[in-house]
Request: fold
Amino acid sequence: MGSAPRRIQVLLPLPLSGPFDYLVEQDVVLVEGDFVTVPLGSRTLQGVVWNMAPEKSEVPLAKLKPIQGKLDLPALPPTLMTFIDWVASYTLSPLGAVLKMAVSVPRAFNRQKKKTFYRLASDLPEKLTEGRRTVVAVATGDLPMALKTWAELAAVGEGVVRGMVKAGQMIAVELTGDDPYPAPDADHPGPALSDEQEKAAAHMREMVRRDAFKPVLLEGITGSGKTEVYFEAVAAALRADGGQILVLVPEIALTAQWLERFEVRFGAAPVVWHSELTPAQRRRAWWAVGQKNIEGRARVVVGARSALFLPFQDLKLIVVDEEHSGTFKQEDGVMYQGRDMAVVRAMQAKCPVMLASATPSLETILNAEAGKYDWLYLGERHGSAVLPDMAAIDLRAHKLDSGTWLSVPLREALAKNLERGEQSLLYLNRRGYAPLTLCRTCGHRMECPHCAAWLVEHRKGGKLICHHCGFSCRTPEICPECESKDSMVACGPGVERVTEELQELFPEARFAVMASDEVTGPTEMREMVTRIANHEVDFIIGTQMVTKGYHFPMLTLVGVVDADLGLGGGDPRAAERTWQQLEQVAGRAGRAERPGRVLFQTYAPEHPVMKALISGDGQAFLEREAEDREQQLLPPFGKLAAIIVSGADFNAVAKTARRVSALSPKDDGITVLGPVPAPMAYLRGKHRFRLLIKAEKQVRLQNIMRQWLNSCDLERGVSLQVDIDPYSFF
Ligand code: ADP
Ligand code: ZN
Ligand code: ZN
Reply:
């Protein structure tokens, strides 16, 4: 008491570039990472103590306000704070915006009472009463449970359990938060691994045992059993007391099969983390992951990229499954590449990180070739399965009848497969019925009023929908331009339309459409996957949703409706991405005893992507891609960043974009292209310009861009979005 209050810095979860200074009494015990409430203007906000001993500050002590209180929450672990700092500075995002991703847990801040849970003592006497024996029998490993839960599970009175507590046969555990999760059991019997799998697994176990940072690429053809291999790494990490494991997957809603496999292997479910969780589920998971006490700690989290921001206490392993997937890139707010950030997180946590894929990204392959990553390879499919046969159908030779999308050879193959009682998959990465509706009389195209984009017809709902902003309207019967009747025609195919064509060809067959309009959540997904796996479906028609890790033993034919889709545009990764998608979708065929076949409909069978698919020589294709990109200094040979200037007023946007360009850095090794109107020049009511920044590898791009952008004044109502390592170019 008596000594002067000290200055600390508190970061608020708001889009602010740094923490604010506050005062705290000398005798208040605080550590960095603690949650506190502070005044800001007339509001009271919750923030995190970011710096207990700031070096200097412009604001004099006398002007500072004191913090109001400390919240009864566990402090953010230092490794998470370091990670937040790193992500903000790498992506040039406001520090507070990154913090927000780590603390956006509704109701997490509610005061959590300490509760007493109980677990069995390790040395139980041989002889127990009948009642106590039933209690022992319902235990799930070491999982602490509430007294009531024990009694309920064992169907005995609570007195029995209480008696065990008194006798020292149950140990009390004080935990904060909701019920703990059952711990997955590393020693639960797993499948016997093949020699190839065992070799890879042994390497990974060794990496986990070494307990040091090391990225490992696990490359393996589709169906080679990569999951079983990285499960062995998970098991090894589980054997470390309280050690935690994070498995990132591209889209959590799509992992019904994955979760089942996990449970089979480990006898308990992992903690699931994604944006669709209810607030109560989020809170339970967040607390369990951040639990200081080993006994109540969540051990394995499987999640979307946002799981990187969970308060892990003791990370021992990170796995990124389908590491090539574009869905790891967050495309709004803080634009970060989840796979790359996973490597950073592992580096900071000093643990191994395993990147798994059948079609690794060029970035990862090159890191492996350079020896920066260890490289494990699985070249055989599990059991007797072999890779499917691939062939192109040249649509120049096999012309499509007007208004149809399936060529004669594809139709014949589908008919044969149906006769044999096997399943077929048609892949078309386009939702809805038709991508364009136009007037036959005047040529008017139905466009979104808020975006420079066509409206996509969804015939089932009788609607036209903008896939960029969600705008929708009824499909018009009269042309809004020339008022002709019955003049609107659908152009091009979507999955709905292909389904219609199939239904006409095979009226007796059973269909399942796998697209986000039909499969709206994890429950629907689980149902559909079960239906397909039980062979209640003959034809699956799907968008990108089907390319993710599914395993359907009866699926033997894959038809790609439009293999050329996705090759155009200004995206430097277009060819690589198309190759990855088609290779993945092809990988769904023939995963069990029956051999698989894949047919691509294309107008360009000579394109390197098609050639790579058909010849099976992905290696040569990637080498060529690498050469091309090296010549053009594109990633990973050079650095790339984008700036998107947007706003409702066209002139203000154009003016700002020109100003940003005029102030662009003249440093060696940097080229600024643009500004040009973005391909999506108008989106959600905002005009958009883009600049593209190319830099040589050694350039310290973030530093230069930070200075540059700080010097640019924005016109009113105009905002500027920075995208480091852009993956989309619209
Ligand atoms: P990938 O992810 O490499 O495409 P998966 O891990 O999905 O391959 O494995 C393909 C199929 O083979 C799955 O059904 C899986 O359960 C099975 N499988 C893989 N390895 C084994 C094994 N050692 N024992 C039994 N089944 C296995
Ligand atoms: Zn018209
Ligand atoms: Zn729109």
Q: What stands out?
A: The pocket of zinc ion (ligand 2) is lined by residues 439, 441-442, 444, 479, 481-482, 484, 487 (CB under 6 Å). The chain has a mean pLDDT of 91. The first strand starts at residue 6 and ends at 11. Residues 195-210 form the longest helix (16 residues).
